[in-house]
Design brief:
Blueprint lengths: L1 H38 L1 H13 L15 H17 L1 H12 L5 H4 L2 H32 L12 H18 L2 H10 L5 H6 L1 H15 L5 H38 L1
Length: 254
């Protein structure tokens, strides 16, 4: 009995050690990127605050309410940007961690996995920056008037913006997730199409949990592209299923 328990604990310890080593490499990469990004912190600050300043009334500026707040926010900006810049390396480490559990044929997907994971993640961040943030900020700023003036703190704005951009980046990974679930036989085109109503419910729940603001407008901005990505994933699963069936038929004929 004790031997069986030791046999079960040994692989777990190996996986935990592997995870620790991968996280160390990720931390080193992000820390290196942080140093570079911190040098350009002023430029990055102007880029990140542009969507808000485009809709703020003339003369309004961001403020900070404590002495170390600006310094801490600049550090957050550098780390956030470094995380985006080093995302290909991060996805590579994710692949190296999960690849031992894959079949030989699936291990050949390393280059497409890194490329498309990075592309979708960055696309999600850019989609949020160019298409989600401007209307969201415009919607909120429109509530200002003669008796109600915006006084937005440095910390609150960056926290809201970075959480939303990161949420979009992660949610845009949905096609990659469904692709591998399809390849592993967990889901297929029929299941995805049949359970569309449940997928919409899950998307709405995820949008509500991921968005830093509880308002329905911001959640809708995230839920809509997620639903479109789901429909794209359904089409992709259909093509993948046809290809797998054709390969199986060719193998049987051979």
């Amino acid at each position: 009995m004790a031997e069986n328990q030791n046999d079960m604990e040994a692989p777990l310890l190996v996986h935990l050690k592997e995870l620790r080593d991968r996280l160390k490499l990720v931390f080193i990469a992000v820390a290196g990127g942080f140093i570079v990004c911190y040098i350009f912190r002023e430029t990055l600050f102007r880029i990140l605050t542009k969507p808000l300043y485009d809709v703020l009334p003339q003369g309004h500026l961001l403020v900070f309410t404590s002495l170390p707040e600006a310094f801490i926010v600049y550090i957050k900006i550098a780390f956030f940007t470094s995380f985006i810049l080093t995302s290909p390396f991060i996805f590579f480490q994710i692949w190296k961690f999960i690849s031992p559990g894959l079949r030989e044929k699936e291990k050949g997907y390393i280059v497409p996995f890194i490329f498309f994971s990075t592309l979708l993640f960055v696309s999600g961040v850019l989609f949020c920056y160019f298409f989600a943030l401007p209307p969201a900020f415009g919607f909120f700023i429109d509530f200002a008037g003669d008796s109600l003036r915006p006084m937005i703190t440095f910390r609150e704005y960056l926290s809201f913006t970075m959480k939303l951009m990161l949420g979009f980046g992660i949610c845009f990974e949905l096609p990659i997730l469904i692709f591998f679930l399809t390849k592993m036989g967990v889901v297929n085109y029929q299941k995805l199409a049949k359970n569309r109503r449940y997928a919409i419910l899950v998307i709405c729940v995820v949008a509500a949990l991921v968005t830093p603001s509880p308002d329905a407008f911001t959640q809708l901005i995230m839920a809509l592209p997620m639903y479109l990505l789901y429909e794209f994933s359904v089409i992709m699963a259909w093509f993948s299923g046809r290809r797998s069936a054709k390969e199986q038929q060719n193998n049987e004929e051979a």
